[in-house]
Amino acid sequence: MQEKIAMDKQAIISVLRRVLDPEHPINIVDMGLVRPEDITITESEVQVEFTPTSPVCPMGAVIGMLIRKALEDASPGVRVVVRLKPGSHSQEAAYNGMINDDQQYQSTIEKLAAGGHLDRLILKE
Does pTM surpass 0.90? Predict the structure, then answer.
């Protein structure tokens, strides 16, 4: 059962300020990868579209998974859907599939955690 969404766009932006770009020690909000207008909140889910740092950014899928993880951790039980902005990446369809495929997502998050990267890329409050 889906939980009621208790976060508004500002709360989501606050959560995303803790997510760092894997290649730069800057949060994804300050980098301009996610803005309030990129967030949609419905009765059943939070949707976030983001712009990768370049059309060939090799970390695009990882950034999307970090966004998903940070929001799922901040609001357990809420469905989070993350996508690259249409036309923003050469591998857009493949990356969107990876971000939202639960098995690939879980495997990547586990690998990031095991390597000590997750705590470095999603800062604690």
Answer: yes
Q: Which fold has domain 9-121?
A: GMP Synthetase; Chain A, domain 3 (3.30.300)
Q: State how far the Cα of 112 lies from the Cα of 103, in Å rounded to an integer.
A: 14
Q: What are the two backbone dihedrals, phi and then psi, of residue 50, each rounded to the nearest 5 degrees?
A: -135, 160
Helix axis angle for 60-74 and 92-100, nearest 10°, is 30
d(CA 27, CA 96): 21
The amino acid occupying position 94 is: A
Name all contacts of 33-42 with Cβ < 8 Å and 24+ positions apart: 33/63, 34/67, 36/9, 36/10, 38/85, 39/9, 39/12, 39/13, 41/5, 41/7, 41/8, 41/9, 41/12, 42/5
Residue 64 has a CB neighbour count (10 Å cut-off) of 25
pLDDT tens, position by position, 98-124: 999 999 999 999 999 999 999 999 999
**Pairwise CA distance, residues 87 & 38, whole Å:** 14
Domain definitions of the chain by residue range: 9-121
Structure tokens at 98: 């990876």
